[in-house]
Amino acid sequence: MSAGNVGVLNGARLSVYEQSTVNMTCQLDALPSPNMSALVWYKEGRLVFTGQYYVMSAVERHDAGEYQCVTWNTMTPTQRQPETVQRNATFELVVMCKNSSP
Questions:
Q1: Residues paired with 92 in a beta bridge
Q2: Distance of CA 49 to the CA centre of its chain
């Protein structure tokens, strides 16, 4: 993949060429729906972006690594206090040299 839109799914491995632009959308399934406006992105445990759509332009080799998108939703079980539950998806970004093949 040289550029494009990617829906991030848990356990995915994304391979892109250097200097590509990648538009990532975190896709999390939960009931009730997770709070996508409070979504955050981490690279190897370090916060890198806040928001549902993460765009990386002109990716380089140092951008490769493990990424995670995280948000929370609140559930209110019958006759109990509301609970906040974390939802996340983790994926690997592989950045290939222009002379490489996937």
A1: 13, 66
A2: 10
Tell me the C-alpha distance between 69 and 90, whole Å.
7
Asked whether the beta carbons of 91 and 63 are under 8 A apart, the reply is no
Give me the architecture of the 3-96 domain, per CATH: Sandwich (2.60)
Residue 24: both structure tokens together: 């990532």
pLDDT band at 8 (very low <50, low <70, confident <90, very high): low
- Report pTM: 0.73
Question: What are the structural domain ranges in the chain?
Answer: 3-96
Q: What is the rounded distance in angstroms from the CA atom of residue 94 to the CA atom of residue 63?
A: 8
The residue whose two tokens read 């990617």 is 6
